Amino acid sequence: DGPIHITAEPGGARVRLAVEDNGPGLPEADLDAVFSPFFRPDAVRTPGEGGAGLGLAIVKSCVEACGGTVSCQNRSPRGLAVVMELRSLA
Length: 90
Hints:
Layout: E1 5-11, E2 14-20, H1 55-65, E3 69-74, E4 80-87
Antiparallel strand pairs: 1-2, 2-4, 3-4
């Protein structure tokens, strides 16, 4: 629900990228699991709704191939943030 915010913050040899929304977030147990191929946190969705569960698995593979890290965090009072840290090219 609501807007999606994308931020980039330099930090020495690294750059922090965050994509944040105002949705319901995820159960704590799913925060790491969402990076597994074909993982879909909402078991009641049909295969035609909400994708195949590959997007964040692809993101993780690409970010790690570039020497970075990626994680999910619930925001307060609601929302989810996907945070990527990459090596700076500068």
